[in-house]
Amino acid sequence: MLRDWSENGSTIFHIHIPRTGGSSLNSFFSQEEYFINGHHSFNKRCPCKGRVDVYNPKKRGSFPSYEDVGFKPYMKKISLVRNPFTWLHSYYKNSGLQFKFLPFSGWQGVNTFHKINSYSEFLEKYLDKGLDWHIPLLKQSQIGQLYNEESGQYEYDLLILGENLDCHLKECYPERDVTRVNVNEYDQDEYQYSNNEIRLMRDHFHDFFNLTEYDYKFVPTKKHIVGKNAKKIGC
């Protein structure tokens, strides 16, 4: 599908959801004019509770909108997704406590902003429906960056399962090598969820699990999901 779009003259706009494998996708297409790295953008500018600029602790503001980083309505919107059980653990592990120079910076500032000292504490706060998360749309859904408040829908043309990205790209571009980037030791750790945590995760991500078919320690064999068909808030 990616190859068909590019060969048909379409421009691909990648909305990078943190810790899903998006850096590898950006690297793969880094030399292609038909591919735009949309960074951690949102449908509309999204206020960040904490600093936005990694190197300027006084700078406050918002994550950019799609339009801020080059999106046009005729472009194809794509994102990578990941099993929420490993995604949240990576979200925590790659945040402020491990990267001291990034406190309060973008999505990496979560542990510093919420004063989190363990993954169990991170998980409890993330799943607390009454807690005001540092980036609300990333708590609303893993694909919160795709949410359009006006339509009440998550809008995309293609979701690629990050765990199956290599296979997806090799099917589309068999003549090219696929190299993973921005993968670190923290993603090799495995957290053993309690039965109650599994139950709470399944409740929180109910619609997202139905859409993607992910589950605890399970990744489906399908490589992508097509269409603008995720409508519910709980995805």
Structure overview:
By secondary structure, the chain is of the alpha/beta class. It is built from nine helices and nine strands. The protein has a single domain, classed as 3-Layer(aba) Sandwich (Rossmann fold). Helix content is about 30%, strand content about 10%. The strands form three sheets. It has a five-stranded mixed sheet. A two-stranded antiparallel sheet has the order 3-4. Strands 6-7 form a two-stranded antiparallel sheet. Helix 2 links the parallel strand 1 (about 10-15) and strand 2 (about 35). The chain is globular, with a radius of gyration of 17 Å. The protein starts with a helix and ends in a 9-residue tail after the last strand.
Question: What's the structural blueprint in terms of helices and strands?
Answer:
Elements: H1 2-7, E1 12-14, H2 22-28, E2 35-37, E3 46-47, E4 62-63, E5 76-81, H3 84-93, H4 110-113, H5 119-127, H6 136-140, E6 147-148, E7 153-154, E8 158-161, H7 165-172, H8 195-204, H9 206-212, E9 224-226
Order of helices and strands: HEHEEEEHHHHEEEHHHE
**Secondary structure: number of strands:** 9
**CATH topology descriptor:** Rossmann fold
What's the architecture, going by CATH?
3-Layer(aba) Sandwich
CATH C-level class is Alpha Beta
Note the beta-strand portion: 5-15%
Helix percentage: 25-40%
Specify the biggest β-sheet. Answer: 5 strands, mixed
Helix run count: 9
Q: Give the overall form.
A: globular
**N- to C-terminal separation?**
24 Å
Q: Measured on Cα atoms, how large is the radius of gyration?
A: 17 Å
Structural class: alpha/beta
- Order of neighbouring strands in the sheet with most strands: 2-1-5-8-9
Mean pLDDT: 87
Low-confidence stretches: none
Domain module tally:
1
